Amino acid sequence: MPQGHKHALLVASLFLAGLPSIALGQNPRPAKKLPAGPPAPQSTHYPILILAFGNDPNWSLRIGQKGPERLDRPGYPPIPLEPADVTHEAAADSWTYHARDSATGAPVAVHLTREACTDAKNDTLTSAPSSGRYSFRASVDHTQIGSLKGCARIAAELFPKINNQPDDEEDSDKKKPPAPTITNFKPPVAVAYLNSAGSVVLSRGSTKKIAAPAGIELALSHDGKKLLYTRSDSRASPDQTIVLYDFETGKSLDMVHGLVRQAFWSPDDRRIAFLKALDRSWQVWSFPAGNPESAVSFSQQPVNALHGWIDNHTILATDMLNAYWLSEETLPQAVALKDIYGSTFQIMSSDSIRVHPNNPDLLLVSADYATAPAGVPVDSMGLAAGFFLYELRSMRRVVLCPPGQAGRAAEWSRDGLQVFFAGSDSSHRPSIYRIFWDGTGVQRSLTGSNFVVGQ
């Protein structure tokens, strides 16, 4: 019998060992005494097929036949776990599963205790309905994320059935690609980008329109109908114009002119923020979308890059030292860029930071590697572009750029499950790629660059 089948049968027998074996209406027969032999092997890996979860904050963790498999939190990509050893304290009827965060290497410990538990936030049994009681109390200690507490239950329905079929079926299963972890994503229906000729393209559904023969710094409204871009007016002058293009009318309107750049729509599409040079420094200004003449200063904090709105009153901008959360309602907040970038990436004014559309704690950062990883191509300046995810609270940093591939100008999809980034194909043509936020599903999307998502 193959080793995998022996392991599966052993695990199944351990799981069934705790179930009653007496049929209804029958009296148990006295067991025959067998000759004394060596003690039966004891498995520390029990219980199996467990779903642990909590709700303050919300989280869930799966324990399979090899140990902890994956930690899930709403608003964050799933964290794959690499199981290690497990210890069983028989006196306390508890288990401790050790694992490792596959992306960061951070140690993880999962503690299970067989005792009644409830999913109520106050964690008391007295005020909880009977339907909220579970067989195990659970806690997770992740050295970056912190401690998570909750309950657990046997959840065999979440895992594949134990395979007792012949070897050829097992070999056939090994050849099958792994099931995708992201299945409910929605492809964008409105996008803008620069095509291979450098023209600005606005695409809605199957309809594509050329918005301008040239432009940079594209920003598409959330309804996907209006596009902002920056136009250079003269090679001899640094002055530029921020232009508004309307998809339905096909008309363009000059909004603001001068030492201006990097326009962004507010989440409700009612306001536009942009950078304006004053007193030899860049500052954030804003105006109502239909009234550019009324533009006023949003913040006097000197910055050198604008990264968009976080909400209708807060804007993210950076200088070479800090990221700033500039707000109309509260005092500005700052986080040191060296804490966000770590030692893997270098800070440059051309970097971009995008806040997750549904989770302000999660950042998508495009920057150049401090040292080019093996196999990643470098540009004419010897720089290798990549991008990573960063959690502000836990300071957890995960490189998302595919191995051996350069990627820059990464952008979120509106559902927050996909990331689009610029790279090049095998023919060295500028291309847009898509990757899921958990690092799976990389595929080429189209030929072009400067890709942004609207709807």
SSE arrangement:
Blueprint: H1 3-16, E1 50-55, E2 58-64, E3 67-72, E4 79-89, E5 94-101, E6 107-118, E7 133-142, E8 146-154, H2 167-175, E9 190-194, E10 200-204, E11 207-212, E12 216-220, E13 226-232, E14 240-246, E15 252-258, E16 260-265, E17 271-278, E18 281-288, E19 296-303, E20 305-311, E21 314-318, E22 322-327, E23 333-336, H3 337-341, E24 345-346, E25 352-356, E26 359-369, E27 385-391, E28 397-399, E29 408-412, E30 418-424, E31 430-436, E32 443-447, E33 449-453
Antiparallel strand pairs: 1-2, 1-8, 2-3, 3-4, 4-5, 5-6, 6-7, 7-8, 9-10, 9-33, 10-11, 12-13, 13-14, 14-15, 16-17, 17-18, 18-19, 20-21, 21-22, 22-23, 24-26, 25-26, 26-27, 27-28, 29-30, 30-31, 31-32
Whole-angstrom Rg: 28 Å
Largest sheet: 8 strands, antiparallel, barrel
Poorly predicted tracts of residues: 1-28, 37-43, 122-130, 162-170
**CATH topology of the largest domain, which one?**
Neuraminidase
Strand order of the largest sheet: 1-2-3-4-5-6-7-8
Top CATH class of the largest domain = Mainly Beta
CATH superfamily of the largest domain: TolB, C-terminal domain
Count of extended strands? 33
Structural class: mainly beta
Number of separate domains: 2
Number of helices: 3
Under the CATH scheme, which architecture of the largest domain would be assigned?
6 Propeller
Query: Percent of residues in helical segments?
Result: under 10%
Strand content: over 45%
